[in-house]
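Reviewers of the previous submission asked for a worked example of the structure-prediction workflow described in the proposal, so we include one complete record here. The input consisted solely of the amino acid sequence. No template or homolog information was supplied to the procedure at any stage.
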Amino acid sequence: MKEYVLTKIRDTLYGKIPNEEISTVIDSVSFCLRNYDIMAKETSVVVCDNSDSQIISKFFIAKAVEGLCQSSLDYYRVILRAFILHVGKHIKEIVTDDVRVYLAYKKINKCNDNTLNNIRRTLSSFFTWCTEEGVLDRNPMLRIKGVRQVKKLKKPLSEDDMERLRSLARTKRNKAIIEFLFSTGCRVSEMVNVNLGDVDWQNGQIDVLGKGRKYRTVYLSARCKIALQEYVDSRTDDLEALFLSDYEGMCQQIKDMNKLSRISKGAVEIMLRNLGKKAGISNVHPHRLRRTAATTALKRGMPIEQVQKMLGHESIETTTIYAQSTNDEIKLSHEKYII
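From that input alone, the workflow returned the following structure tokens.
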């Protein structure tokens, strides 16, 4: 929990103050908290109580039972809290116009269409549940349509970009992370939960737990296996996690007080972002490596059904997003076929 709090502080400060100062703040907070334990606040549910807070608590319990991951639950919670506070009504009093006015308010305040759709989907999930559970007689989301989004072509990393990232990754761990994300196409949340015992070294494969609490098999390229093996061989700990946090840049006193632990999503994102800046590549993040893996596989002839299974997509329509041709590819085809 302490590592989670430090990661949240690091993420919050990123871009607001220089990176050197962020490291100093994190070191100082870590030192001050060395003799303390941190626990998340918990709330209990009174089943017979139908107040707003208890309705929301029951909703999150239901979603947790359905298998929604903690990060999604946290995201839902932020959206619902902001909506309820803005509307200023009890849940049972909310009507369609309240939702419309709130979405319009968010739009006016420069909320992008993707985020607006996420808000709409979250509210739809909540009010649909309320209707099914008998909390509401009528679902206020029934007449709320989806927000039309401008479809932007999100570019994968080029082969040159990948080589620059590989060459600038200083540690064996960072090299292994890059190769793992590119070889497997895993989500970062899936990668950070992999244990050493999950790796089938002989067959070069790993069973990962993905969305919907479903396992799937992902495969390691020869390059990825070598990078992983070199990283694992360099470790002297007995921890089960495949990838560990590090305390690079901390003073020795702080480093001695902190124990290694499983790497967090935030730490991976910050590492890749900083690596991208050094390489002169903008917008480097774990999902872009996943997109690069999918696009590369499709370009080299892997059937889209197999790419779908590799990525763990429920619907093949999601996978087709990666199959869209880039402008460069269209230009080359145009020069070839249009004379």
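The first strand starts at residue 199 and ends at 200. We consider this example representative of the routine output the project will generate in years two and three.
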